[in-house]
Amino acid sequence: MKKEDFKIQGMHCASCATNIENLSKTLPGVKSVIVDYATQKGVVSFDENITTVAAIGKSITDALGYKITSVVERNLEEENRSYQKEIKQQKNYTIFSWLVAIPIMLGTFQEYWILSSFVPVFLANSYVLWLLTTPLMLGPGRQFFIGTYRGLKHGFTDMNLLVSTGTGAAYLLGVVNTLFPNLGFGGSEVAFFETAALLIAFLVLGRYLEVLTRGKASEAIRKLMGLKVKIARVIRNEVEQEISIEEIIVGDLIVVKPGEKFPVDGVIRFGYSAVDESMITGESIPVEKKENDTIIGATINLTGLIKFEATKIGKDTMLSQIIKFIEDAQLAKPKIQKLADKVSGNFILIIHILALFVFLFWFFVGYDIFFTPGSQFLLSSISLSSVPISVFAVLLSITVLIISCPCAVGLATPSAIAAGTAKGAEYGILIKGGDALERASKVNTVVLDKTGTLTKGKPAVTDILNVGSLDSNQILQIAASAEKGSEHPLGEAMVKNALEKNLVLSPIDHFQAIPGHGIEVIIDGKKIYLGNRQLMSIQKITISDFVEEKMQKLEEDGKTAMILAVDGTIEGLIAVADTLKENSAAAVSALQKMDFEVLMITGDNWRTAEAIAKQIGIQNVLAGVLPENKALEVKKLQEQGKVVAMVGDGINDAPALTQADVGIAIGSGSDIAKEAGQIVLVKEDLRDIINAFELSKKTMRKIKENLFWAFIYNALGVPLAAGVLYPWFKFLVSPELAALFMAFSSVSVTLNTLLLKRYKFKYI
Amino acid sequence: MKNAPKNFFIISLALAGFFSFLFILTANNQRGVEKFDIYLGMIWIFVLSFIVALSLAHMFKKDKQNE
After folding, report:
1. Is residue A16 within 8 angstroms of chain B, CB to CB?
2. What ipTM was assigned to the predicted interfaces of this complex?
3. Is A99 left (phi over 0), alpha (psi -120 to 50) or beta?
4. Cβ–Cβ under 8 Å, residues A455 and A581
5. pLDDT tens-digit profile of A142-171?
């Protein structure tokens, strides 16, 4: 089974996305399809032995007319060109529509208009109005009729149908009234051309606003893709040469001058510089980088010349991974959107049934009982007294169709998800889609892995105690000299600490490792033992009560204490421990203040685990948990009804990250953990957990608000359009006012979503 | 299944025709209704019921496929 992304051109509403999904599912070899209207993208799972994306695309194009292109390598310029073309087209349509609609409106309203003296009389002539309206219907209005034809040809209904039925009916009524004024449909005095013209003008305006909003959804991806470097300076055969980024291979040595961007990910082999990583991590302060430090492609080299070795290229670079992450995120629909899709999917059918009933009611019952001569549509020139019963009922029916276009419903969720995930990505919080956002907003329990998540995961020297004649620097110098060649993490920590203190290490004459106990070394003719209690006991070196007491104290604090003995005398103790990350305690404290239940999970023994937990302020500890049982512990918590977020970094955390309701992977961790996590924190800062939760809550609230705005227009508009208030207040919504309402619902959703851009994270 | 869209189209047309006919029958017995009212109503009923019938037919097809 293969999964591939594809790009769609020509979608106009959420129903188009549903139609593509429905059609694709009927094609042979296709397992599942998700189409996102906001980003005009889709992802299809299919059996590659039966079909291809090209074949699926062809079937969709033949059946529905949408252009499908496979996304092997995205062409940013081409996408941007095509998007700009679409914006330009809709903008031109809008300008043209209004340039024509305004004279039509002035002509129709001439006798009511306060500026009637300025409006030429010929504009009121129904033939002139017909002449003006026709190019509007054939130009900007054509897109709705073409969409309707394509849909009906294959039995699909979408908002084009609602628009076409409404505008088409108004236009035809106008034509009939102009050509046959005595037929009884109201005559040339009630032309209906302004209804058709204003409908088209408002609908085209709505479509233009939608295209602009849709662009906002893909803006984050376009921005990120814009960060990519095109040319790199590579040293091959000792010659520096400029090549395109696609030609870089893993292992290439690349030169980056100050002010330039790193083209791909890699490791510094020469040089020292400050690097601006803000575009990837959101961290505004430049990070100092030296030899052997890793660098991320697309970040900027600020100060020194750097030569680095490419380790990740093409789609493996962090930038490409982030782009993929956001693209996938926009296609993962939350439950709330699935519900909205279901509602809007059947909405068009329901509205047509409703329009049918509205017509029948006003034709057979309502008109006779409730109609009052002299009544008018709100903000319309049509005098309802001059139209017959059939036209009256048809107009109300048209208004219902127009007011209920579910465009805003289609935009509500995807636009908020796109804005939320983009906002997160800007600050190094990658959220894998609406589904993850929805679950993250409901979390009440946070399980934190210890090593690599709360702690740095690398042991460091924490205490050096002198219990003999040597001072602490001498103790460290001897211990580090003894451990110089050692690959043991504890030894490495001592060597690192000695080098940081600029201590000069002595050469060793003899080295012997005593597995499980320590080492025996001869330096300057002195016999050195460095290790645990057992080593001292084997060598018959007495540990005094004072030393024992100090050791126990260190061990109670979760540290590993080692004894240094020189020529049979204990000179000092060196304690090594995994150190806490800078903001671990602050993050835990903030989570607790926000009423999250915080637990620490670790494979360490109880004493070490509790010591660390105490430092951070965590009361609930799950210690001695084997890696394979971490997922089980998460499951136990879920069985207690808790919504669990698991935060981890290692390969051993992957099952627990998958088991949890929300898996949060730390960016510095393994690729497997990142793959398993639904949220990835690019920075090491654990306070981003809080940022991620708050952003999720904010985005979910935005989705709900958007859906409210989208549905409230329909919920209020449809009964008004059906004439519910007419019997009491003689109040009727005209079709053109209905189109204005509909355009406003899209505008409300768009503006509400844009507010999310102004959201500020608590911890930056 | 290949001919399904064509069949649905014909069935929907027939249903729309039937509803329009019902409308004419009912409207003819209504007092104060002019001939042009009946024509316009008939066309409108035909359009709307055709769309509804076609949508329902496809919904039915989709449900069948899901089964």
Report:
1. no
2. 0.93
3. alpha
4. yes
5. 988 988 887 777 666 677 777 888 888 889
